[in-house]
Every structure is written in C-alpha cells, then in structure tokens.
Amino acid sequence: VISKFRFPGRRVLLIVIMIGLLMPVALLTVPLYLLFIKLHLVNTIWAVIIPSMVSPFGVFLGNVYADSSVPTELLEAARIDGAGEFRIFSTMVLRLLAPAMVTIFLFIFVATWNNFLLPLMMITDENLQPVTQGLYGMMAYFAPDKGAVMLASVIGVVPLVILFLVLQRYWQSGLAAGAVKG
C-alpha cells in the first residue's frame, strides 16, 4: 500500500517507520511489560508473540521489495480488465511478494527465537520459557561441562534449520519476469 499508492501523509509514515528502525527493542521492554500487566497477558506466550508481530524492518523491507518487484503497469492492466483492488492484491500482488513475505517472516521468527530480554521480563513459568532462557539456565548447572550446553544449543537451532528448509522453495527470483512487455 505504501509503495504503490500516493496519499497524504505517506512521507510522514515512512519517516515514522525509519525512526522505528532506529529505536532499540530493549528500550520498549519495560513499557511493554507495564502494558501487558494491565492486559493480564504477562506469563503467557502472547506476551512474547504480540510484540514480535510488529516490525518496522518488515514494513520497510516489504515497501522496498514491493516498489521494485510489483510493476505498476501490471496493476493498471488488471484495473483496466475490471479487477478490484482486493482481487488484484489477493491474486497478483501476494504472489509477487511471496519471497519478501517469507524473508520477513524468517527475520522476525529468528529474532523472536533468539530474543532474551523480552521473555525474561514477561515469562516466569518454566514451562513457557524459550530456548534462550533454557540455555541460560543450563549454564549454571553444567558450568564445567560445556559439551552439554553446546549440544543443547545445536538442538535449539534444529527448528530454525527445518523452517529454513521448508520455506526455501518460496525464495524464487523473477516471478514477475515476462508479465509486462518491456
């Protein structure tokens, strides 16, 4: 929407997104904690998932990718053929943006998976603690034996490797090549 539509306040919105890129995540942890206390979401998995769903980097990367990979001529041709905005978005634009969406999802997932401070603040239940918290706790128990911690680290990375392998087929370049005459 930001890359293909011109509307009042577009530049301000892009500047706000850029400022969001410059803001460290740790700076927002305490205000998020206070907000989630009021929402009664502390010590739930949602206290980690909901803040991770909003990513200024994801919006910025999606904007740049859409600007370069979704030809305006293709959208105009679909409008001339009588397609509505929702149909254009759901049948054409989403397919063209699939590699970017997979990349953004993986960036956000890996950042959430490796996040230490937010789960440390939000989750006290040992059954809900993520891998990073478990590895930190293992350091106290297995201090002389670093092999156990290294093995746990490798096991903790296995879900990420599986996710990368499953989603790699969506990274295809040139999906729109040939869609528009040059």
Quickly describe the structure.
The chain is an all-alpha fold and 182 residues long. It contains 10 helices and no strands. It has helices at residues 10-22, 25-38, 46-53, 56-69, 72-80, 85-96, 98-114, 117-122, 131-141, 146-167.
Would you count the extended β strands for me?
0
Inertia-based shape: elongated
Mind describing the biggest β-sheet? Answer: none
N to C succession of SSEs: HHHHHHHHHH
How confident is the prediction overall: mean pLDDT?
84
Taking all Cα atoms into account, the compactness measure Rg is 21 Å
Strand content: under 5%
**Low-confidence regions:** none
Helix count equals 10
Structure description:
This protein is mainly alpha-helical. It has 10 helices and no strands. The model has no long low-confidence stretch (mean pLDDT about 85).
Question: What are its keywords?
Answer:
182 residues; mainly alpha; 10 helices
